[in-house]
Structures are given as C-alpha cells and as structure tokens.
Specification:
The protein has a 3-stranded antiparallel beta sheet. With 275 residues, it is mainly alpha-helical. It folds into 3 domains: 34 residues; 89 residues; 90 residues, no CATH class. Helix content is 73%, strand content 6%.
C-alpha cells in the first residue's frame, strides 16, 4: 500500500493515516499528510535559503561598490591636481628665468610671484584632497561599524522573539552548541564560521534542517525497497555511489573564503531537496 508496508501505517478514528517510524530508538507516529507536506515545502525552503545567500551577496556588493565610487572620485580629483601641477611646472621650465631677470627685472619679479602663488595653491589643494581621502576612508569605516552594531542588535532581538528561552545564557549556549555541531557535520561549517551567522532566519532554517534530517533518515529508510544481500566474500562488490550532498559537504570542509560559503549554501540546498 502506497509503497509502504502496511505495518508502518495506522488509521485514525476519522480515517486519516499515521506513519509509524522509529526516531532515536523511540516509536513515533506522524500524520501521513504532514510527512507529505514536509516534502512539498522543501522547494520553498531551499529557495528561501538561496535568497538569503543572494541578499547577503548583494549587500556586500553594495558596500564594495560604494567604496569604489568614493575612491574613484577622490582619485579623479587627485589626478586633476597632478595635471594642474604638471602644467605649471611645464610653464616654469619654458621660461628663461635668468634672461628675464637680467633684461626685465620687473617682469621677472611679477612672473616669479605669479608662479609661486599658483604652485602654493595647487599644493594646498592636493593636501586637502589627501585629508579628504583619509576622512572619507575613516568615515566609511565608522559608518559601517555603527550600522553593523545596529544590525546585530536588531537580529538578536528577532532571534529572542523566535526563541524566548535564549534570553537565558545557559540555554542559548547549549542550543547554539548543538546547532553549531550539526552545521559542522552537515555542511562543513567551522565553529568560527557559525559564530558569524547572525540572520535569525538562517538560524531557524538550520534548526528546521537539523530536526528534519533527524526524522527524515528514518522515514527514508522505510520508503526504500529491500536492499539486496551483500555478495559472499570473494565476490566482486559494486562501489557505492557518492551522493552530490557528500561531495559538496567534503568540498566545503576544505574550501576557503567566498567559495566555502557558496559550497556550504549549495550543501544546505541539496540536503533540503532530499540529497
């Protein structure tokens, strides 16, 4: 019936089906409609996880773009100052100052004063541009630091709304330790990687994935056909096929930087799709 042994199904008084499975050594029952719903929502959860990765990447790109724009603007101004300085120096080199001083001292004095005034003005402009560059850089750092603090506070408040018990430090440390261990085994996250996961939506999805995976392994075993007997010793054994999830997880454990984050995201998506 339904590809499942009849012993695995029970019927409720109202005619509904219950799927009998064993989780962590304990017999449990789950409405068949709920099990089906979990599988149907996998695609939606996967899309949300990918959307979070895209959102984070877009934010990082926006910060980088803004920094590049500021740097480009300052560099253009500095280049203009250098061009003006070059023109003044070219004019200086074209003037025969010795001849002018000998035959027209008044003109020599006037030109000398004019050159000194222009040169000093250019130097002041370049110094000011240098100060602006330093201030812009420091200002960008301060702004990002302030926004980061506000963002982290907002995320923490949302996390507590979703998990009121986490306002207790002991409970929080215990639960986050379990989530971190799961993320390390399932997706290749290091403890340091997981410390930087601040989005409460991501935390909730990791919680769901951990709960789902713990139950899904048992449900999946019940749905598989009977495994053929292993050949006797001496026979040719067929090599086990490595799943895409295993490949992504192993690759994530050895990767670094942005490539590591992308592999971890792909591993989570593959898990939730049933890999």
């Amino acid at each position: 019936m339904l590809g499942v042994d009849e012993s695995q199904l029970s019927v409720t008084d109202d005619g509904g089906f219950l799927l009998n499975v064993k989780i962590d050594g304990k017999d449990t029952q789950h409405p068949l409609s709920e099990v089906i719903k979990n599988f149907q929502t996998e695609g939606s959860v996967t899309n949300k996880f990918k959307a979070l990765a895209v959102e984070r990447k877009e934010f990082e790109q926006a910060v980088t773009t803004k920094a590049v724009e500021i740097k480009a603007s300052l560099e253009r101004n500095q280049q203009l100052g250098q061009i003006l300085e070059h023109e003044i120096m070219s004019e200086y080199e074209k003037t025969d100052w010795d001849d002018l001083r000998q035959y027209d001292p008044a003109e020599w004095a006037a030109k000398r004063q004019e050159f000194a005034s222009k040169y000093q003005r250019i130097q002041r402009v370049q110094q000011e541009l240098g100060h602006q560059a330093q201030e812009a850089h420091q200002g960008a750092i301060n702004e990002m630091t302030t926004k980061r603090k506000v963002y982290l506070k907002e995320q923490w408040d949302l996390m507590i709304v979703n998990n009121p018990g986490w306002s207790d430090e002991t409970t929080y440390d215990k639960d986050m330790g379990e989530l971190s261990s799961f993320a390390a085994k399932a997706y290749g996250y290091t403890d340091e990687d997981f410390k930087h996961v601040t989005d409460p939506r991501t935390i909730e999805m990791v919680k769901d994935a951990m709960s789902f995976r713990q139950g899904k392994s048992e449900v999946k075993k019940k749905r598989l056909k009977k495994v053929p007997k292993v050949q006797k010793r001496g026979g040719v054994r067929k090599a086990l096929k490595v799943s895409k999830l295993d490949k992504l997880t192993k690759a994530a454990k050895t990767a670094k930087g942005a490539n590591k984050r992308q592999l971890q995201t792909d591993a989570v998506a593959e898990l939730l799709m049933g890999g």
